Amino acid sequence: MLIRRTNIRIRTLKDINLSIPKPLLLLQEIPIYNYTQKSNYVDVKMKWKKDSYYDSIETIYKSQELKPIISLKNCIAEEQEGCIPISAVSKRGLVFDVPVKKVIKFLRYYPSIFEEFTGPQYNLPWFKLTPEAIDLHREELSVYENYRVDILERLRKFILMSEEKKLPWKVIRGMQWYLGLPDEFLKDPESNLDSSFKVVEMEDGLWGLSVETDEKKLSLLQKNVVKRSGEYLEGSLAPVAIPLYPSKGLRLKRKISNWLDFFQGLPYVSPYEDFQHLNRSSDVYEKRVVGVFHELLGLFVDHSAERKKLFCLRPYLGLPQKFYKAFERHPHVFYLSLKNKTCTVILKEAYNDDATMETHPLLNVREKYIRLMKKSDTILKRRRQKNQSTEHGKIIADVDTFCEVEDKAEIPVSL
Question: What are the transmembrane regions (predicted)?
């Protein structure tokens, strides 16, 4: 009886399996990345290796100084008189990201950009821009005007990378420096942004910016495929390899090298495509995360960002909780710079192959600001030398006066 029941059950399962209409299964549209929902996880643990080439890029490691300088410069330039008293900014150091406690001390660090003079009342210190800084400010404004379409396109792509095609204002402001957005774009979006941008209300009472467009965007990696082959078949199983740039002296274990070859052959899911069907523990999803940061850093001015500043993007770009592991597992794609006591993520491709990257129009202006910053060191050095020579002259004069008094005291008085 038991054997007969078992046979009956087996026969029933076979009948159920045969009763499924196979043509219906074949007609269902399955996303390309559902074919590779496997996780061949390899524990990639590599020691961090210092690379002086990436640590010496001035536009990256000087950005901590340049950012507050640009903010203070804009504050002065917005005034009709072109100058401000120190009281206008002395208590706004956190707003301008000034790295020192006193704003006046920071302004005096850069005499090549900020010129100090005594104000009309109460002998308070006032500051205005030097002629060189004024010329650079005008050049910066002309870049915003001439490359307005390019800058708007970068903002549009940044928003389209989010799951719901919208981002809160606070997130966009946090990325303003990296995207190279002028202040007026965020202060008055209705008059500065085109019709594809919409101001919307988000969850928790937050206001944000959304993008409405039917145009399909290609990522930088997809555009490079088009450049090489002349076409890109969307939805095909052909993999898109991420360019690798190994640092000198960095060797990979054989199992890691084999896994990396396997990883390069996986299907590529663009940051602008739907990824809801992806298994979060699959290798394809990890490649999608690497592709998101490749595209994101490619949109930034200097193709880098402080790692801690990227945490605010996690819930909006569909990133895992420990997304920063992607930087450690893929050292041929990203470099982690520990200069200036902070961790900065750098996209290696941007500094190894100019042909594949789209140069941000604001990069050249920032390089000129950095060169102007360096002139401050020369000015301060001359001032110190002048003060030392003045003090030395005073000491010699005091010694001569003292000697004259001593000589007069030694002259005998005649009777």
Answer: none
Helix (H, G, I), strand (E, B) or coil at 144: helix
Cα pseudo-dihedral 40, 41, 45, 48, rounded to 10: 80
- pLDDT, one tens digit per residue, over 275-319 is 888 888 888 999 999 999 999 999 999 999 999 999 999 999 999
| pLDDT at residue number 399 | 47
Dihedral over alpha carbons 382, 385, 389, 394 (to 10 degrees): 100
Strands 114-118 and 344-347 come out as unpaired
Round to whole Å and give the CA distance between 173 and 366: 19
> Any idea which residue has 């070859």 for tokens?
261
Question: Nearest CA to 33 among 219, 325, 276?
Answer: 276
- Residues 99-134 have pLDDT tens digits of 988 999 999 999 999 999 998 877 889 999 999 999
Q: Which of 40-49, 92-101, 127-136, 354-363 has the lowest mean pLDDT?
A: 40-49
SS3 state at 265: coil
Length of the chain: 415
Tokens of 130: 């030097």
- pTM for the whole structure: 0.82
Query: Rounded to whole angstroms, how far apart are CA atoms 303 and 334?
Result: 10
Q: State the Cα–Cα distance between residues 1 and 6, nearest whole angstrom.
A: 9
Average pLDDT over residues 73-92: 93
CA torsion 195→178→353→57, rounded to 10°?
Answer: 160
- Residue 196 or 412, more confident: 196
Residue given tokens 């950005």 in the structure block? 63
For domain 57-141+368-383, which architecture applies? Answer: Orthogonal Bundle (1.10)
Q: Which CATH class is domain 147-214?
A: mainly alpha
pLDDT the model gives residue 370? 97
Range list for CATH 1.10.10 in the chain? 57-141+368-383, 147-214
Spatial separation of the C-alpha atoms in residues 218 and 221, rounded to whole Å: 8
> What mean pLDDT is predicted for residues 76-82?
93
- Alpha-carbon Rg for the chain, nearest whole angstrom, is 31
Angle (CA) 26 30 31, round 5°:
155
pLDDT greater than 60 at residue 3: no
Task: Give the DSSP H/E element, type plus range, for residue 368.
Answer: helix 363-410
d(CA 31, CA 41): 22
Distance CA 316, CA 22 (A): 39
